[in-house]
Amino acid sequence: MEFIVVVLVLFVACYLIIHNRFLKQDSLKESTYKKKGPLLNTQESTFYNALRSAVGDHGIVMSKVLMSAVVTPSATDKKRWFIAQNRIAKTHFDFVVCDARTLQVRVAIELDSGVELTKGKIERQKLLIHACKSANIPLIGTSMKHTYQVGKLRRLLAAHIDLIEPEKEIRFCKRCSSPMVIKTASQGEFKGHRFFTCSRQPHCTYTENYNVVFDETT
Asked: What domains appear along the chain, each with residue ranges and CATH number?
Protein backbone atom coordinates (compact mmCIF):
# COMPACT_ATOMS: atom_id res chain seq x y z
CA MET A 1 0.00 0.00 0.00
CA GLU A 2 2.79 2.36 0.94
CA PHE A 3 4.52 1.52 -2.35
CA ILE A 4 1.41 2.53 -4.31
CA VAL A 5 1.18 5.83 -2.43
CA VAL A 6 4.83 6.59 -3.16
CA VAL A 7 4.32 5.82 -6.85
CA LEU A 8 1.27 8.10 -7.00
CA VAL A 9 3.18 10.93 -5.30
CA LEU A 10 6.06 10.57 -7.72
CA PHE A 11 3.65 10.51 -10.67
CA VAL A 12 1.91 13.70 -9.52
CA ALA A 13 5.27 15.40 -8.90
CA CYS A 14 6.49 14.48 -12.39
CA TYR A 15 3.27 15.74 -13.93
CA LEU A 16 3.54 19.08 -12.17
CA ILE A 17 7.18 19.50 -13.21
CA ILE A 18 6.41 18.69 -16.85
CA HIS A 19 3.35 20.95 -16.83
CA ASN A 20 5.19 23.90 -15.34
CA ARG A 21 8.34 23.59 -17.45
CA PHE A 22 6.98 22.57 -20.82
CA LEU A 23 3.24 22.78 -21.29
CA LYS A 24 2.93 26.32 -19.96
CA GLN A 25 5.83 27.46 -22.13
CA ASP A 26 4.27 25.91 -25.22
CA SER A 27 0.90 27.54 -24.59
CA LEU A 28 2.60 30.92 -24.11
CA LYS A 29 4.52 30.60 -27.36
CA GLU A 30 1.31 29.76 -29.20
CA SER A 31 -0.24 33.06 -28.03
CA THR A 32 1.11 35.56 -30.53
CA TYR A 33 0.09 39.21 -30.66
CA LYS A 34 -0.09 42.12 -33.05
CA LYS A 35 -0.48 45.87 -32.64
CA LYS A 36 -4.05 47.16 -32.63
CA GLY A 37 -3.10 50.50 -34.11
CA PRO A 38 -3.42 54.03 -32.65
CA LEU A 39 -4.76 54.34 -29.11
CA LEU A 40 -7.14 57.06 -30.32
CA ASN A 41 -9.13 57.38 -33.54
CA THR A 42 -8.75 60.42 -35.78
CA GLN A 43 -11.42 62.51 -34.04
CA GLU A 44 -10.12 61.62 -30.58
CA SER A 45 -6.54 62.40 -31.64
CA THR A 46 -7.59 65.78 -32.96
CA PHE A 47 -9.38 66.58 -29.71
CA TYR A 48 -6.38 65.37 -27.72
CA ASN A 49 -4.06 67.73 -29.63
CA ALA A 50 -6.44 70.66 -29.14
CA LEU A 51 -6.78 69.85 -25.44
CA ARG A 52 -3.01 69.76 -24.99
CA SER A 53 -2.74 73.16 -26.65
CA ALA A 54 -5.48 74.53 -24.38
CA VAL A 55 -3.81 73.20 -21.22
CA GLY A 56 -0.27 74.16 -22.20
CA ASP A 57 2.28 73.76 -19.40
CA HIS A 58 -0.40 73.96 -16.71
CA GLY A 59 -1.31 70.27 -16.76
CA ILE A 60 -0.78 66.82 -18.23
CA VAL A 61 -3.44 65.38 -20.55
CA MET A 62 -4.12 61.63 -20.41
CA SER A 63 -6.64 59.62 -22.39
CA LYS A 64 -8.77 56.53 -21.70
CA VAL A 65 -7.85 56.39 -18.04
CA LEU A 66 -9.54 53.65 -15.99
CA MET A 67 -11.93 55.04 -13.39
CA SER A 68 -10.43 52.68 -10.81
CA ALA A 69 -7.12 54.52 -11.24
CA VAL A 70 -8.78 57.85 -10.43
CA VAL A 71 -11.44 57.09 -7.83
CA THR A 72 -11.94 54.40 -5.21
CA PRO A 73 -15.01 53.37 -3.19
CA SER A 74 -15.36 55.16 0.14
CA ALA A 75 -17.39 52.34 1.72
CA THR A 76 -15.82 50.68 4.76
CA ASP A 77 -18.01 47.58 4.57
CA LYS A 78 -16.19 44.97 2.44
CA LYS A 79 -19.30 43.83 0.54
CA ARG A 80 -20.31 47.38 -0.37
CA TRP A 81 -16.71 48.19 -1.32
CA PHE A 82 -16.46 45.27 -3.75
CA ILE A 83 -19.84 46.09 -5.32
CA ALA A 84 -18.82 49.73 -5.84
CA GLN A 85 -15.38 48.71 -7.14
CA ASN A 86 -16.90 46.26 -9.59
CA ARG A 87 -19.08 49.06 -11.05
CA ILE A 88 -16.05 51.13 -12.06
CA ALA A 89 -13.60 48.32 -12.85
CA LYS A 90 -14.19 48.29 -16.62
CA THR A 91 -15.16 51.94 -17.16
CA HIS A 92 -12.82 54.72 -18.25
CA PHE A 93 -12.66 58.48 -18.53
CA ASP A 94 -12.24 59.72 -22.11
CA PHE A 95 -9.69 62.30 -20.99
CA VAL A 96 -8.32 63.62 -17.69
CA VAL A 97 -6.18 66.67 -17.03
CA CYS A 98 -3.70 66.21 -14.19
CA ASP A 99 -1.60 68.63 -12.18
CA ALA A 100 1.73 68.94 -13.97
CA ARG A 101 3.73 68.35 -10.76
CA THR A 102 1.70 65.90 -8.66
CA LEU A 103 -0.34 64.19 -11.43
CA GLN A 104 -3.44 64.59 -9.27
CA VAL A 105 -6.52 64.59 -11.50
CA ARG A 106 -7.95 68.10 -11.76
CA VAL A 107 -10.64 67.64 -14.42
CA ALA A 108 -12.30 64.71 -16.20
CA ILE A 109 -13.63 65.20 -19.73
CA GLU A 110 -16.31 63.22 -21.54
CA LEU A 111 -16.23 63.59 -25.32
CA ASP A 112 -19.55 63.51 -27.19
CA SER A 113 -18.99 61.99 -30.63
CA GLY A 114 -22.50 62.87 -31.76
CA VAL A 115 -23.51 59.21 -32.07
CA GLU A 116 -26.91 58.31 -30.62
CA LEU A 117 -26.55 57.00 -27.08
CA THR A 118 -27.33 53.38 -26.36
CA LYS A 119 -28.71 52.14 -23.04
CA GLY A 120 -25.23 50.99 -22.04
CA LYS A 121 -23.67 54.38 -22.79
CA ILE A 122 -26.41 56.18 -20.87
CA GLU A 123 -25.72 53.99 -17.83
CA ARG A 124 -22.01 54.71 -18.22
CA GLN A 125 -22.65 58.45 -18.25
CA LYS A 126 -24.78 58.18 -15.13
CA LEU A 127 -21.92 56.32 -13.41
CA LEU A 128 -19.38 58.94 -14.51
CA ILE A 129 -21.54 61.79 -13.20
CA HIS A 130 -22.20 60.04 -9.88
CA ALA A 131 -18.57 59.02 -9.33
CA CYS A 132 -17.18 62.48 -10.14
CA LYS A 133 -19.78 64.24 -8.01
CA SER A 134 -19.12 62.04 -4.97
CA ALA A 135 -15.33 62.26 -5.43
CA ASN A 136 -15.48 66.03 -6.01
CA ILE A 137 -13.86 65.84 -9.46
CA PRO A 138 -15.13 68.34 -12.06
CA LEU A 139 -16.61 66.56 -15.07
CA ILE A 140 -16.80 68.51 -18.32
CA GLY A 141 -18.84 67.34 -21.27
CA THR A 142 -17.81 68.63 -24.67
CA SER A 143 -18.56 67.77 -28.27
CA MET A 144 -16.44 67.10 -31.32
CA LYS A 145 -17.11 70.56 -32.70
CA HIS A 146 -15.01 72.00 -29.86
CA THR A 147 -12.09 70.02 -31.25
CA TYR A 148 -11.18 72.92 -33.47
CA GLN A 149 -11.68 75.66 -30.87
CA VAL A 150 -8.72 75.75 -28.51
CA GLY A 151 -9.90 79.11 -27.13
CA LYS A 152 -13.25 77.62 -26.14
CA LEU A 153 -11.56 74.64 -24.50
CA ARG A 154 -9.49 77.07 -22.44
CA ARG A 155 -12.67 78.78 -21.26
CA LEU A 156 -14.22 75.43 -20.30
CA LEU A 157 -11.17 74.50 -18.25
CA ALA A 158 -10.39 77.92 -16.79
CA ALA A 159 -12.72 77.46 -13.82
CA HIS A 160 -10.73 74.46 -12.63
CA ILE A 161 -7.14 74.97 -13.81
CA ASP A 162 -4.90 78.05 -13.87
CA LEU A 163 -4.65 78.39 -17.62
CA ILE A 164 -2.71 80.89 -19.67
CA GLU A 165 -4.59 83.81 -21.18
CA PRO A 166 -6.47 83.01 -24.39
CA GLU A 167 -4.26 83.40 -27.43
CA LYS A 168 -4.99 83.56 -31.12
CA GLU A 169 -7.19 80.79 -32.41
CA ILE A 170 -5.47 77.48 -33.07
CA ARG A 171 -7.09 74.84 -35.23
CA PHE A 172 -6.25 71.25 -36.09
CA CYS A 173 -6.85 69.50 -39.40
CA LYS A 174 -10.11 67.53 -39.44
CA ARG A 175 -8.54 65.04 -41.83
CA CYS A 176 -5.15 64.19 -40.24
CA SER A 177 -5.18 66.01 -36.85
CA SER A 178 -2.09 68.12 -37.67
CA PRO A 179 -1.92 71.81 -36.67
CA MET A 180 -3.31 74.21 -39.27
CA VAL A 181 -1.63 77.40 -40.44
CA ILE A 182 -3.08 80.65 -41.75
CA LYS A 183 -2.29 81.61 -45.34
CA THR A 184 -3.50 84.29 -47.74
CA ALA A 185 -4.75 83.44 -51.22
CA SER A 186 -2.45 84.96 -53.82
CA GLN A 187 -4.64 84.37 -56.86
CA GLY A 188 -8.13 83.45 -58.00
CA GLU A 189 -11.45 84.90 -56.93
CA PHE A 190 -10.44 84.70 -53.26
CA LYS A 191 -7.16 86.58 -53.74
CA GLY A 192 -6.22 88.43 -50.55
CA HIS A 193 -8.55 86.32 -48.36
CA ARG A 194 -7.12 84.42 -45.39
CA PHE A 195 -7.76 80.72 -44.91
CA PHE A 196 -6.58 77.81 -42.75
CA THR A 197 -4.59 75.04 -44.42
CA CYS A 198 -3.00 71.87 -43.06
CA SER A 199 0.64 72.25 -42.06
CA ARG A 200 1.39 68.89 -43.73
CA GLN A 201 0.83 70.17 -47.24
CA PRO A 202 1.32 68.85 -49.87
CA HIS A 203 0.75 65.49 -48.12
CA CYS A 204 -2.60 66.73 -46.76
CA THR A 205 -4.54 69.31 -48.76
CA TYR A 206 -7.37 70.05 -46.31
CA THR A 207 -8.32 73.74 -46.05
CA GLU A 208 -10.92 75.63 -44.06
CA ASN A 209 -12.55 79.06 -44.28
CA TYR A 210 -10.83 81.49 -41.92
CA ASN A 211 -14.17 82.99 -40.93
CA VAL A 212 -15.86 79.73 -39.91
CA VAL A 213 -17.61 80.36 -36.57
CA PHE A 214 -18.94 77.51 -34.46
CA ASP A 215 -22.02 77.73 -32.29
CA GLU A 216 -21.10 79.42 -29.02
CA THR A 217 -24.39 78.81 -27.24
CA THR A 218 -23.96 75.07 -26.51
From this structure: 42-157 (3.40.1350), 171-218 (no CATH)
Query: Counting Cβ atoms within 10 Å, is residue 107 exposed (0-12), middle (13-18) or buried (19+)?
Result: buried
- First and final C-alpha spacing in the chain: 83
Average pLDDT of the segment spanning 52-74? 93
The per-residue DSSP string of the chain comes to -HHHHHHHHHHHHHHHHHIIIIIHHHHHHH--------SS-HHHHHHHHHHHHHHGGG-EEEEEEEGGGT------SHHHHHHHHHHHTT-EEEEEEE-TTT--EEEEEEEE-SPPPPHHHHHHHHHHHHHHHHHT--EEEEEGGGGG-HHHHHHHHTTTS-PPPP-S---B-TTT--BEEEEE--SSTTTT-EEEEETTTTS---EEETT----S--
Q: What is the largest CA-CA distance in the chain?
A: 103
What residues does 172 pair with on adjacent strands?
A: 179
Half-sphere exposure of 13 (CA within 13 A, CB side): 6
Using only C-alpha atoms, the chain has a radius of gyration, in whole angstroms, of 26
- Average pLDDT, integer, range 91-114: 92
User: What pTM, to 2 d.p., does this model score?
Assistant: 0.66
